[in-house]
Amino acid sequence: MHEMALMAGVFDIIKQYTTDLEESRVTKVTLVVGEMTNAVPEALQSAFAVYSAGTVVEGAELLIREIPLTAECMSCGWAGKTEKHLFICPQCSSLGLELKTGRELYLESLEVE
Amino acid sequence: MEIKINTGILSSNDQTAVENKKVFDQTGLFVINMMGSPGAGKTTVLEKAIDILVDSVQVAVIEGDIYTSKDAQRIEKHGVPVKQINTGGACHLEAKMISRVLAEFNLAATQLLIIENVGNLVCPVEFNLGEDIKIAVLSITEGDDKPLKYPLLFRESGAVILNKVDLVDYTDVNMDVLRRDIIRINPGIQIFEVSARTGRGIGEWVQWLLEKVKEKKIRLPKNRVFL
Ligand SMILES: Nc1nc2c(ncn2[C@@H]2O[C@H](COP(=O)(O)OP(=O)(O)OP(=O)(O)O)[C@@H](O)[C@H]2O)c(=O)[nH]1
Ligand SMILES: [Mg+2]
Ligand SMILES: [Zn+2]
User: What is the pLDDT of residue B227?
Assistant: First the structure.
């Protein structure tokens, strides 16, 4: 359950942006999480609840924007969603698929009031 | 008010990993990060491999474990420097845990540093340590469905060791399916079929590893010139 460690990273970043913000509260945190990361949204939500308690983030909404795994074929030009993490082209069966999206794992924005 | 951030959640670990890599690259030290389920046979494979490796290169080992130092004690018997890192509950090693123990090794006199990560198919993969290559260890007794269920490890690894092939007749594992799925997840991956019990296939993996160690050393003088 490394989502706790991931959330520690999220809160390190949040802290850098909120130390100067007196009297304000964070109301929404948006994370972008690709399909091919080992981060489970439900586990991230639980970790978020633990880390936000007693901070300016307490009570904020955690929005997780999930990004599908997509790839492009270097042989025939096919582009689309990669099913079951198999990097095999559904059009020409080539194994030369290049990953386009799905490895994202970042803190996109904060909503502060 | 919305504040745009766009910072990677793992950026702090990634930064430390880059610093570790700089230390390794200075002397051309080749570093591998071994990952796989608890009991896949990581330590046993290493014990067998080290006995061959020590004839050609200086090896050092970092053992990651949640609480115990049992694996480090096993490695120590093979006469190579080894440091235990206890994560105290965490399911993976992080780059800063590695940087803290580096001073305890004579890195300049070492050509190959092997890191055995905490036994886990999921968590360690996202945490770069500064290694040159990730190596997955999967025992065939875990089943041929594992690559599809845990694709990221196989996608990110440069090689996979399919261990315990001595047990192939006692399981329903389909080796063709296993190999096919691994290649579909990562066409560039090297697959080694080994038995750490009988020693079968260990020599092939060691040869491949020695080749990598040599390649990194050869690149070194060039880097130095351009510094
Ligand atoms: N039959 C057979 N048994 C093996 C083989 N390799 C390892 N084992 C056994 O599998 C068990 C686990 O091996 P370890 O080397 O401790 O596994 P590990 O991956 O290091 O485990 P953790 O560090 O706890 O994650 C031990 O009982 C080994 O003797 C093999 O090739 N064949
Ligand atoms: Mg072990
Ligand atoms: Zn194609």
Answer: 37
CA distance B177 to chain A (A): 13
**Average of per-residue pLDDT across B20-28:** 96
From 3.80.30.20, 3.30.2320.50, 3.30.750.24, 3.90.550.10, which CATH number describes the A3-68+102-112 domain?
3.30.2320.50
Domain ranges of chain A: 3-68+102-112
**Residue to mutate, B43, B44, B73, B170, ligand 1, most ligand atoms under 8 Å from C-beta:** B44
Find the largest Cα–Cα distance for chain B.
Answer: 64
Is residue B25 a part of any domain in this protein? yes
How far is ligand 2, taken at its centre, from the CA of residue B119, in Å? 7
**Is residue B50 within 8 Å of residue B152, measured between CB atoms?**
no
Compute the average pLDDT of residues A69-97.
93
What per-residue confidence (pLDDT) applies to B226? 41
Q: Number of helices (H) and strands (E), helices first, in chain B?
A: 8, 8
d(CA B7, CA B24): 26
Amino acid making up residue B116? E
Listing DSSP states for A21-82 in one string gives -TT--EEEEEEEEETTSS--HHHHHHHHHHHHTTSTTTT-EEEEEEE--EEEETTT--EEEP
The interface predicted TM-score (ipTM) is 0.92
**Minimum CA distance residue for ligand 1 atom 11:** B39
- Taken in order A5, B145, A99, B162, the sign of the CA dihedral is positive
Helices within B54-168 (DSSP H only): 70-76, 95-101, 146-149, 151-156
Q: Which residues lie closer than 8 Å to A20 by C-beta, 6 or more apart?
A: none
CATH at residue B109: 3.40.50.300
B119 lines ligand 1 (CB under 6 A): yes
Residues 6+ apart with CB under 8 A from B73: none
CA distance B210 to B216: 10
Shortest distance, CA B176 to any CA of chain A (angstroms): 16
Q: How far apart are CA B125 and CA B67, in angstroms?
A: 20
